[in-house]
Amino acid sequence: MPSNDDFLDDLPAPGAALVVATAPANRTANLTAAGAPAAPKRARAPVRDNRVLGQPGFVLHSYPYKETSLIIDMFTRDHGRIGLVAKGAKRPFSKLRGVLQTFQPLSLSWSGKTELRTLIDAEWVGGMLPLERSALLCGFYLNELLVKLLARDDRHPALFDHYVSTLNQLAHGEPAQIVLRKFERALLKETGVAADLSRCTSTRSRVELDVDYVVDPEKGARIADRGQGEVWPIVSGKTLLDMEREDYADPVTQGQSKQLMRFLLAHHLNGQPLNTRQILIDLMQL
After folding, report:
1. Is the domain of 64 the same as that of 204?
2. What is the C-alpha separation between 204 and 208, in angstroms, rounded?
3. Do 187 and 237 share a domain, yes or no?
4. pTM
5. Are residues 194 and 82 in the same domain?
6. How far apart are CA 197 and CA 235, in angstroms?
7. Cα(164)–Cα(57) distance, rounded to whole angstroms?
8. What angle do CA 130, 82, 128 make, to 5 degrees?
9. Are residues 194 and 246 in the same domain?
10. DSSP class per residue in 39-69
């Protein structure tokens, strides 16, 4: 804004003729043919682009919507779990028909800002081996956990990377009982409900290797009271410390961590059954 001195400089000197200059067009109102000022133009609201382009993601689950479309639960790296409408995806010649498959890395584009967005495009990225046999069932188990434990629109890039790593390990034949335990633990950590297994809540000290514990789902580990007949799984301090450092080489750790994670997941799922978990238990004794 001009200063007072600037206005003084623009005034004519005493005795000089007063000259009226025409103001620039952008500083005066427009005039109509009759000389009356025209109505000011209303400023247009800025157009908001609600599109997301080229986002890495995976199909978690899909189900039919109307006659030719699908509603898809997607797990994306930077936007978390989101819902998308894939219009026309069920049509015989739709390019999306063969792309929107589980465990395929995709590049996704969508629009909208409501809970259910509209899928614009999906392209297969490749670079991952397909899951087969028991590994395929394990993959469906991972997807079911994500659908039931992740809130919509909560971004978890670290968990997304862990998911990709887990799928790769399963595809390459890594032991499922170890790969799944690591993912289950990572999932609880990312959702903020995993307690520190290396500290004892009753003694306020570090967990000891040769002491038995139970894990309170809301508070953490405490010393087991066998005389009271604990109803929660009893695990050794060594198992808890092994789980904290992701070391599942000990068969005892594998067995005890399986029981503990089953108990913790059931608590945080509020009793919701895991269909694929039961199938896995029957087939692989997980």
Report:
1. no
2. 12
3. yes
4. 0.79
5. no
6. 11
7. 10
8. 15
9. yes
10. PPPPPPPPPP---EEEEEEEEEEEEEETTTE
pLDDT for 111-124, tens place per residue? Answer: 998 889 999 999 99
**73 phi and psi angles, rounded to 5 deg:** -90, 120
Neighbours of 257 (CB within 10 A): 26
pLDDT (tens digit per residue) in 32-85: 444 555 555 565 555 456 899 999 999 999 989 988 999 999 999 999 999 999
Residue 203 belongs to a domain: yes
Q: How many domains does the chain have?
A: 2
Tokens of 40: 């000011």
212-216: strand order across its sheet: 220-223, 212-216, 235-236
Token pair belonging to 141: 């188990």
Query: In the structure encoding, which two tokens stand for residue 265, read together?
Result: 């997941």
- Same domain, yes or no: 149 and 66: no
Output b/e per residue, 194-229; b: 16+ Cβ within 10 A: bbebeebeeeeeebbeeeebbbebeebbebbeeeee
What is the rounded CA–CA span in Å between residue 171 and residue 136?
8
Q: Please give the Cα distance from 234 to 260 (Å, whole number).
A: 8
CATH of residue 152's domain is: 1.20.1440.120
Q: How far is CA 30 from CA 22, 43, 204, 214, in A?
A: 13, 15, 78, 80
